[in-house]
């Protein structure tokens, strides 16, 4: 006849989550995985029902009552603070030697693996829990890879979209972006102003000092425009030396004139480039959405163009506000 020691050794291999109890209901041996749940609390010698709480069925207080549940599924918890949920099955031993209670985690296996750092070695080699763990790990890896890929794709799309609306030389918005913003301002029916700025004498910079100098001047001009406008304003480079500034919610002529004067004064300061001095200025025309009953993008752009042409006609380096009484001639192309 097999001794309890031999039986326990066999159970260690076949079902490492077993509990071997004697005829009095005291624990004689527990499997290595069960003991791993409470490594600092030896279970041997303790009453089974002092260590494990029978959740279903509840009215079991003796070993005989427990043995009567042979073949039935048990729901148990450990009595202490971390009440790990367990499932069990009772198998009585012959000759009134006690019983073997085989335990499992059921659906709480993922929590148990996390809480007790369990590995495949803590389960029987034929336990389906191993396959479940592999599937969960594979699913987690696949989901993480998918999430990472989605983030990269989203980042790439945002970067591509930003690039599509950005002037690569100056970092300002480009004409495409200007069209979008202007369309939103018009459809929003809120007041706004559109300022069209053209750099005077910029062609002579390119002719005298080369395109590298011209590019540098454009970058400095862009920086000045950004510094003289608000975060809610939109500054766009719409041509070689042409810029459009849109002021959302601002139609005060005195404020806009003050901004234009500061821009002109700052852009008139000589710009040094590789030992050369580059001199430019700016002519500016401004149109207000409130000057039109129902402004259209093309209409307000045309109005700002007319105001800009008037500024150039009057000698450049100045600002003009569009007036419906102004002449309708457009600058030569």
Secondary-structure topology with pairs:
Blueprint: H1 4-14, E1 18-21, E2 27-30, H2 32-37, H3 48-51, E3 52-56, H4 63-67, E4 73-78, E5 85-92, E6 99-104, H5 109-116, H6 128-164, H7 175-188, E7 192-200, H8 202-209, H9 211-227, E8 234-237, E9 242-248, H10 253-267, E10 271-273, E11 276-278, E12 281-288, H11 297-313, E13 319-321
Parallel strand pairs: 12-13
Antiparallel strand pairs: 1-2, 1-6, 3-4, 4-5, 5-6, 7-9, 7-12, 8-9, 10-11
Beta percentage is 15-25%
Note the gap between the termini: 110 Å
Shape: rod-shaped
Share in helix: 40-55%
Query: How many helical stretches?
Result: 11
Secondary structural class: alpha+beta
Q: What is the string of SSEs from the N terminus onward?
A: HEEHHEHEEEHHHEHHEEHEEEHE
Radius of gyration: 41 Å
Largest sheet: 6 strands, antiparallel
As laid out across the biggest beta sheet, the strand order is 2-1-6-5-4-3
Low-confidence stretches: 325-333
Task: Give the tally of β-strands.
Answer: 13
Mean residue pLDDT: 84
Oligomer: single chain
């Amino acid at each position: 006849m097999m001794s309890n020691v031999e039986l326990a050794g066999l159970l260690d291999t076949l079902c490492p989550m077993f509990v071997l109890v004697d005829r009095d209901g005291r624990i004689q041996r527990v499997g290595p995985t069960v003991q791993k749940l409470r490594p600092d609390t030896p279970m041997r010698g303790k009453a089974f029902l002092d260590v494990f709480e029978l959740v279903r069925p509840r009215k079991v207080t003796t070993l005989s009552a427990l043995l009567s549940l042979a073949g039935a599924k048990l729901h148990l918890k450990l009595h202490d603070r971390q009440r790990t949920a367990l499932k069990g099955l009772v198998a009585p031993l012959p000759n009134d030697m006690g019983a073997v209670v085989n335990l499992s985690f059921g659906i709480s296996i993922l929590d148990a693996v996390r809480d007790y750092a369990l590995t495949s070695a803590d389960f029987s080699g034929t336990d389906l829990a191993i396959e479940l763990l592999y599937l969960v790990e594979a699913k987690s890896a696949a989901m993480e890879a998918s999430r990472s890929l989605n983030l990269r794709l989203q980042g790439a799309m945002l970067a591509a979209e930003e690039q599509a609306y950005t002037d690569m030389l100056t970092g300002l918005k480009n004409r495409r972006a200007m069209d979008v913003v202007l369309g939103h301002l018009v459809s929003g029916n809120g007041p706004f102003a559109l300022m069209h700025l053209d750099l005077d004498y910029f062609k002579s910079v390119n002719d005298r000092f080369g395109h590298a100098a011209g590019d540098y001047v454009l970058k400095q001009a862009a920086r000045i425009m950004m510094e003289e406008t608000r975060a809610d304003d939109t500054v766009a480079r719409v041509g070689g030396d042409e810029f459009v500034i849109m002021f959302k919610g601002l139609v005060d002529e005195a404020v806009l004139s003050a901004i234009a004067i500061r821009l002109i004064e700052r852009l008139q300061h000589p710009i040094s480039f590789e030992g050369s001095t580059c001199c430019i200025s700016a002519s500016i025309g401004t149109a207000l959405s409130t000057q039109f009953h129902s402004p259209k993008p093309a209409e307000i752009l045309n109005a700002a163009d007319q105001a800009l042409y008037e500024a150039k006609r009057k000698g450049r380096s100045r600002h003009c506000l569009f007036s419906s009484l102004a002449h309708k001639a457009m600058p030569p192309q």
